[in-house]
Amino acid sequence: xxxxxxxxxxxxxxxxxxxxxxxxxxxxxxxxxxxxxxxxxxxxxxxxxxxxxxxxxxxxxxxxxxxxxxxxxxxxxxxxxxxxxxxxxxxxxxxxxxxxxxxxxxxxxxxxxxxxxxxxxxxxxxxxxxxxxxxxxxxxxxxxxxxxxxxxxxxxxxxxxxxxxxxxxxxxxxxxxxxxxxxxxxxxxxxxxxxxxxxxxxxxxxxxxxxxxxxxxxxxxxxxxxxxxxxxxxxxxxxxxxxxxxxxxxxxxxxxxxxxxxxxxxxxxxxxxxxxxxxxxxxxxxxxxxxxxxxxxxxxxxxxxxxxxxxxxxxxxxxxxxxxxxxxxxxxxxxxxxxxxxxxxxxxxxxxxxxxxxxxxxxxxxxxxxxxxxxxxxxxxxxxxxxxxxxxxxxxxxxxxx
Length: 402
What we know:
Elements (H helix, E strand, L loop, with lengths): L3 H4 L15 H8 L12 H4 L19 H7 L6 H18 L3 H10 L3 H18 L3 H33 L4 H7 L6 H12 L5 H42 L4 H13 L5 H16 L5 H21 L2 H10 L4 H11 L6 E2 L4 E2 L4 H16 L16 H18 L1
Antiparallel strand pairs: 1-2
Helix pairs in contact: 5-7, 6-8, 6-10, 7-8, 8-10, 9-11, 10-11, 11-13, 12-14, 13-14, 15-17, 17-18
């Protein structure tokens, strides 16, 4: 079953706002390309690598070879030049972009990180080993450790992204096999990678579409899994009830489940279907029918009592057509007294404000198509004719009792 964290993004669509900044661009600035950072990138991001202070080197003739480094990226750097690039990046990670969120974003945008990875971590360790300042030593060790953890996450996300990009028609199968890998962090990573394609809108849109396909597949998988788990749990409870030594014992088990708030709709539906099938069958003995009927009525009664009393009052009021009788019923509902809950009659009381709140919640949910915001027991009120009656009830409560 999906965690709450996972559920939080399920209903969201992946929307890309083109973001004109890539780490390969700023990395080019580090190794000597003073024109690398685009003029229209955001100020705080263009400052990640200050292009006005490039790390240029000289060859044996004394000429700057920044042009060659610009063409080759980090692959053309010798050890000495790579150390200088790594030192600049360490400064960026410690000073300019010091948060793990920044680091994740920079690694996701990077086109050069795969080449730099071993050199960077080795340089962090070397500088920490030679550092005399305890505070700086701690910062370097922490940077190396934390960035390595983030880098492993990013590599894992990239591997999964490659799998789904290679088989977009098999996304549902991939989700079923690797559901635990489709985390909130993965979708954030996918969004960031899509942003890095700002120069290629077609590829960017294709990646955003792929992300939405993944979200839909995850939602379908979770819904199916939850339904299966609910049915399996309900079946176990149903078998336990059926195996009771007597009808009274079976009914007590249903009562106990209700008291623990474990009498779910799946179990009630299972009991209802069993009773319905037995009632319509000529092959079932009357004794069995009688047992199933008692179980059905017990489950139904308990399920009704699990419903908020305001919803029960509303449902009762909706059965009354006569305006005068309905007004009397409202007056009774708002008159405090001893509450009684029986098999045939319930005496329940509430306040005009509470009842008004519940009625308005149902009406608003109907008009704004927010059925999912209602508790399960109130969703059967989402009917145009019932909504008309509820709106009329709202006016009566407002005019007569508030």
